[in-house]
Design a protein that fits this description.
Elements (H helix, E strand, L loop, with lengths): L1 E6 L8 H17 L2 E7 L18 E5 L2 E6 L6 H14 L4 H9 L6 H7 L4 E5 L5 H12 L3 E4 L7 H4 L2 H9 L2 E4 L2 H11 L6 E3 L6 H5 L4 H6 L7 E5 L8 H14 L4 E6 L5 H11 L2 H4 L2 E5 L6 H7 L2 E3 L9 H8 L4 E4 L4 H4 L6 E4 L4 H13 L1 H18 L2 H16 L1
Parallel strand pairs: 1-2, 1-5, 2-4, 5-6, 6-7, 7-8, 9-10, 9-12, 10-11, 12-13, 13-14
Antiparallel strand pairs: 3-4
Length: 411
């Protein structure tokens, strides 16, 4: 099978969709001997699509682990002009504000549509909304009469990003759609009348072996953790991730269990400076000393970070899936998330994790205390999560399901 994947970023760019497409592409080459090409922009993250001051990767073509990658230069000079226009148009509900938001977010990739139109292979798949390259890819496929599959990674609770009728019109024109969760599928069918037969619920994969081999001892030793219990947030330091809620919840944890430590590890964003300011202004010096902050750690360090923690807390305000949950499960760790977005369709409350109300530091603190006090419960939830990963979320399982979608479209 000759496949073209279109994604806004690719290794070493950071993000869940970027990692997903890389692993699917490499596994299709390795396991099925498919020919896979990836078209992408040259930003490290989505901030590079609107901010010319952000660092960029070199454009060009290269092969990586059997996958042919075509990295296009992004045009990001309109961000400062479009930002105030799209913001006011959105706030005032002006007609056409969805188009301004889409052009502002980008990525504007000159040459992408022509590349898609000239693609002579079997099928094209693109991820993720609400970004502009999804529509560019759709137009190129329709012009060339090439089958197109969308992986949307929708966050319906994010009104600015996903309250755009143009997204659901585009999905209705695709030949198939891959959803991350039952929540996403139900939302598309019930709220936007997308044909249910078009949608396949698959989810995201994880390298179980990497997490089984992980050793948290070095992490604990390097940060003088000794026998201290460790609560960890491991993921991009985005505004929507609920890290601020987690920090506030720890004040209640420390009142009863002052020996507990908090790890915040992940890629920096514009929100990172606000988090650091919050820590300095709202926590006492002794509480600040209980926080371990790791910026931009290497990907190979991630399994050891999960292995080092006792509880994984990820109180995100909205997720299309939440790959960090299955990474924690792969390490046998209990997880705590919010009853928001797709999370309740990924984490089974009381079975393989615990769920709390969104933006509620008091409830989160009580739940963390409960887990920290009962090691048997932590082991029970972590083991149940690991069994779920082995049933549903290994890369072999996820890749096979993606390929079946392609086969169904072509048949």
């Amino acid at each position: 099978m000759d496949i073209l994947h279109v994604v806004h970023g690719y290794f070493p760019a950071l993000g869940g969709s970027e990692r997903l497409i890389q692993r699917i592409s490499e596994n299709l080459v390795d396991r099925f001997n498919d020919h896979v090409t990836v078209c992408t922009a040259n930003g490290y993250n989505t901030e590079a699509f609107v901010d010319p001051s952000q660092p960029l990767l070199p454009p060009g073509e290269f092969d990586l682990n059997g996958v042919h990658v075509r990295r296009f230069p992004v045009f990001n000079r309109l961000g400062r002009v479009l930002f105030p226009l799209q913001e006011w148009a959105y706030r005032l509900g002006l007609p056409g504000n969805q188009y301004l938001r889409t052009w502002y977010g980008g990525p504007i990739i000159p040459g992408l549509r022509r590349y898609v139109e000239n693609f002579s292979g079997d099928v094209v798949a693109a991820t993720a909304f609400p970004l502009l390259h999804m529509y560019t890819t759709l137009r190129g496929c329709k012009c060339a009469n090439t089958p197109i599959v969308f992986h949307g990674a929708l966050h319906p609770l994010n009104d600015w990003g996903f309250n755009r009728p143009m997204i659901y019109k585009a999905i209705s024109q695709a030949d198939a759609y891959i959803a991350n969760s039952d929540y996403e599928r139900t939302y598309l069918v019930e709220s936007h009348q997308i044909c249910p037969e078009k949608i396949s619920v698959i989810g995201v994969g994880v390298d179980v072996d990497r997490f089984e081999r992980a050793d948290g001892g070095n992490v604990r030793q390097s940060h003088d953790l000794d026998d201290h219990l460790l609560v960890a947030f491991i993921g991009q330091q985005g505004r929507n991730k609920g890290i601020d809620t987690l920090i506030l919840s720890m004040k209640d944890v420390w009142l009863e269990m002052p020996e507990v430590r908090l790890l915040i590890a992940g890629a920096k964003t514009h929100f990172t400076s606000q988090l650091q300011n919050m820590i300095c202004t709202q926590l006492s010096p002794s509480e600040q000393d209980h926080i371990i902050y790791l910026h931009n750690f290497a990907e190979e360090e991630k399994p050891d970070l999960f292995a080092a923690c006792d509880v994984f807390a990820y109180p995100s305000r909205y997720e299309s899936f939440g790959i960090s949950f299955i990474e924690a499960w792969a390490a046998g760790k209990p997880v705590v998330g919010c009853r928001a977005g797709a999370v309740p369709s990924v984490v089974s409350d009381g079975v393989d994790g615990l769920l709390v109300p969104m933006d509620n530091p008091i409830a989160l603190g009580k739940t963390l205390l409960h887990l920290l006090k009962f090691p048997d419960l932590r082991r029970q939830l972590g083991q149940a999560g690991r069994e779920k990963v082995l049933r549903r979320y290994t890369w072999e399982i996820v890749t096979s399901r993606w390929r079946r979608v392609y086969e169904r479209v072509l048949s």
